[in-house]
Here is the input.
Amino acid sequence: MKSEHDNPQLQAHFLELERVLERVECASTLYQVLALKRSATAENIRSAYRHTVALLNPSDKKHRHLDPDLKARIGRAFNKAGNALSVLTNFGKRIEYDNSLVKRDRVPLSADVPEAPEANLATKTKPAAADASLASKTKPADFKQRAGLATDSEVINIKPSRMHQAIYTKPAEQMPSAERRRFKRYKLRFPARVVGHDKVNGKWDEVAETVNVSKGGVTLRMNKAVREGMVLLLMLPLPVKLRCHGYSEPFYRVYCIVCYVNPTSDEQWIIGLEFLGESPPAGYVDKPWATFRRSA
Here is the structure.
């Protein structure tokens, strides 16, 4: 005689329940708790809440025999969903909450264009080892075309912040173990679509392959030459636990900054990217090919 745990419908329910619990537990905004976009209407919010609650607290007897840990997780998720509904369906509370998100998201990505970029670059910037490696493999004119090098007037400084500190500032093997990373890195290989901009040739895209991933960034193996400071749009099937938004989407869509570039023996490139967020930094819309650098 089969037990109730062999019921395919019951198994499917608990798989979906686990997915919802992971989403709620990893959510950093109330919208993410209910798997909503910020443009969601009040009806969208109520519908998402009903769907979430139906999984957390089904009307039938699916949850008759739950272990205490799972019950506690469901209780916490239920409270988070209720709080999200309460805030997002209240006009005044939602405006106040949305304003807090805008401030939180935009402060780390504010940008200042230097008044005298030529002087700044000449006195403060030294060629990086990765740039030297790139230049040695290609002719100057060829590399400028391949990597879409920006002019001095197209260098934009991004102010540093505690929210977006550099993760991949140099190759991991060159860093002390205590400083190596803020997030655990996982060796996962899957395709990732990379979209960038070249001032000469315009928009380009490539399907690259991940070498390792974390919640703060990713290392890619690419064919196209890029440079440190480029901002790229990345789309990849990142595990839900490593996301900071887009939990219900099949692909994680995130803007990144190139933090290091290393050549390989097979004429490819190992690229270290740091996640910036679902929105690009200030200045990107006008000059997506510019070089973005963190100010001291």
User: Anything to note?
Assistant: Residues 38 and 98 are 8 Å apart (CA to CA). The two ends are 69 Å apart (CA to CA).
